[in-house]
Amino acid sequence: MTTARAGAALGLALIGLALASLSGSCQGALQVGFYNGKCGFSDVEAIVAGVVAAQIGKDPTIAPALLRMQFHDCFVTGCDASILLDGKSSEKTAPPNLSVRGYDVIDAVKTAVEAVCPGVVSCADIIVMATRDAVSLSGGGRYKVETGRKDGLVSLASNVNLPPPSISVDNSIAAFAQKGLNVSDMVLLLGGHTIGVTHCSLFQDRLYNFQSTGKPDPTMDPSLASALRSTCPNPQTNVDNIVNLDQNPLSASIVDNSFYKQILSHRGILQIDQEIALDGQTKDIVGAIAGGLDFSARFGQAMVKLGALQNGSPGEIRQSCRAINTARKLPTSKDEQRTGKRQQRDNLRARSIPKRGF
Ligand code: HEM
Ligand SMILES: *[C@@H]1O[C@H](CO)[C@@H](O)[C@H](O)[C@H]1NC(C)=O
Ligand SMILES: CC(=O)N[C@H]1CO[C@H](CO)[C@@H](O)[C@@H]1O
């Protein structure tokens, strides 16, 4: 009996420890509706939705920008808003960031939620909520997002290991598997390319000199390749033009399964997009999504799975999405010495300046 009680006590202590260590990490327990009742009488998700709708109303291309932002944030060190941090060598300076846009939209949402309940809503959650709203405003299904993330304290360009557009299906499967995402998750998430654009420079080789053959990629519909050669001239001029990732002109900015129908018709733009329609490991999944009616729901589930990637490192609720809270800045040993000295100096100064009374 004593052992049972000791066991129970130990169990409780362990749970306590686990909770204590969770509270300060990015690995918050995610749940649908985490912010319910945490922002007075205000509905955090409604505030986010309002700002995102207004921004997308002004510029519909914000929707693909946000969707890509969630992928880039979550795929690198988990969904911790590390992509938002400014800095000389932070993630957003890495070459694959290319044209990640939408930082100002996240700032606008943050300003709106801080006005109502400061210090409550993480930037990492804002990316995920705003992306969900962008998807639903673009004709996709409205999936329920989990929230409760913390914002990370670290952002390094050297952590950015995003797949390039010429990645093989094998290597892409491996890269997603490393994040706990399986082949169907990968194929569904690549369906993000049902909206948005790519620059010519990222698939130019497929139009002119595929894998040093001196010829276009034989897997691309020749009439499409010919049309794209006029949009993307060779040699490139000094403007890098853009091309829709979903080549169905009626659906290029709608989140639906038309991207899969296009790649089955050899009208994929990025090399990896075309290859998932041809590779034995992925083509049946592509066929099923192209022929099915449940893309919206399945895409939502895959987005939630992408949104659950976390890294267990310490986290906080940032005041500004672009910088870690100064009070929380982790000092390097050099910084520590410096602030130590500065503090001594400030203390001395404080003592020598007589306090002015009112
Ligand atoms: C193997 C994985 C992936 C590769 C190699 C890849 C590559 C790319 C490339 C090269 C671009 C064009 C960038 C530019 O020219 O500015 C792009 C755009 C885009 N990607 Fe991906 N991507 C991948 C996965 C994903 C996933 C999982 C999502 C979301 C679920 C996503 C969403 C988007 C969106 C929405 C755009 C358009 C952005 C815009 O119009 O601003 N991508 N991707
Ligand atoms: C991938 O994972 C999802 C759930 O996370 C599951 O429904 C699906 O069957 C899995 N697919 C494969 C090919 O294992
Ligand atoms: C927003 C941002 O920092 N973009 C950067 C993306 O990467 C390129 C190339 O490394 C930089 O020049 C951009 O400034």
Quick summary:
The chain is mainly α and 358 residues long. The chain is built from 14 helices and six strands.
Core attributes:
two-stranded antiparallel sheet, Peroxidase, domain 1, oxidoreductase, binds 2-acetamido-2-deoxy-beta-D-glucopyranose, 358 residues, globular, mainly alpha, Peroxidase, domain 2
What do you see in this structure?
With 358 residues, this protein is mainly α. It has two domains: 26-161 and 309-316, Peroxidase, domain 1; 169-303, Peroxidase, domain 2 (Orthogonal Bundle). The protein has helices at residues 2-23, 44-58, 62-75, 103-116, 123-137, 169-178, 183-190, 205-208, 222-231, 258-264, 271-276, 283-291, 295-307, 333-352, and strands spanning 31-32, 146-147, 151-152, 197-199, 242-244, 315-316. The strands form three sheets. A two-stranded antiparallel sheet has the order 1-2. Strands 3-6 form a two-stranded antiparallel ribbon. Strands 4-5 form a two-stranded antiparallel sheet. The longest helix has 22 residues, at 2-23. Bound molecules: protoporphyrin IX containing FE (HEM) and 2-acetamido-2-deoxy-beta-D-glucopyranose (2 copies). One 2-acetamido-2-deoxy-beta-D-glucopyranose (NAG) binds at residues 182-185, 305.
